[in-house]
Design goal:
The protein is of the alpha/beta class. Strand 1 and strand 2 form a beta hairpin. Helix content is 37%, strand content 23%. The chain is built from five helices and seven strands. Helix 3 packs across helix 5 and helix 4 packs across helix 5. The strands form two sheets. The protein has a five-stranded mixed beta sheet with strand order 3-2-1-6-7. Strands 4-5 form a two-stranded antiparallel ribbon. It has a single domain, classed as 2-Layer Sandwich (Nucleotidyltransferase, domain 5).
């Protein structure tokens, strides 16, 4: 990718509590928890789509090639109908934002990026350790165990950057 500036915005969604990582080439510019807001009377959370759009736009420059990378996850047995609906709604919000901003979306299967970093069969927190090995300066932003979502987003973005060659990327 010499000579081409790439701004990849990898997004990782376990449900609505995920992370957005902003890369320029192989450098991390910023890492965010996915912004959420209260939905209804039961304190359920939903993605704050206006804030996600603001994050995307704040890193947008005319000369940048922008890509959005989303972890391609599926429903798991035993998940309730409501939680699956909320998950699908979150996924639709991201797709809608990307369509409105004309950002291409690339999907990465967990097995692909985890294999790339030798994380198959490891504990969830292993992704945090791997990121700190690759990007030691990001360590303060990954201090809590629950920051594994941020670590996953970073690794998904790095997987994409390491493997993206042209528009025929298959994650």
């Amino acid at each position: 990718m010499t000579g081409v500036q790439t701004c990849a915005l990898p997004i990782c969604f376990p449900v609505t509590i995920g992370a957005i990582c902003v890369f320029k080439n192989k450098d991390i510019l910023e890492i965010y928890d996915v912004p959420t807001m209260v939905d209804g009377k039961k304190n359920k959370r939903q993605i704050n789509s206006a804030q996600v759009t603001h994050i995307f736009k704040s890193f947008l420059h005319e000369s940048d090639k922008v890509s959005v990378i989303v972890e391609q996850v599926n429903a798991m047995p035993g998940q309730g109908v409501t939680s699956m609906f909320n998950f699908g709604q979150s996924f639709g919000i991201i797709k809608g934002i990307c369509a409105a901003l004309s950002f291409p979306i690339y999907f990465v299967r967990p097995a692909k990026w985890k294999k790339h970093f030798n994380l198959i069969g490891s504990v969830k927190d292993a992704s945090r350790t791997k990121v700190i090995e690759i990007y030691p300066t990001i360590s303060p932003k990954l201090a809590r165990k629950k920051d594994s979502n941020k670590a996953d987003a970073i690794l998904i973005g790095r997987y994409f950057i390491d493997n993206y060659k042209n528009d025929s990327f298959h994650g």
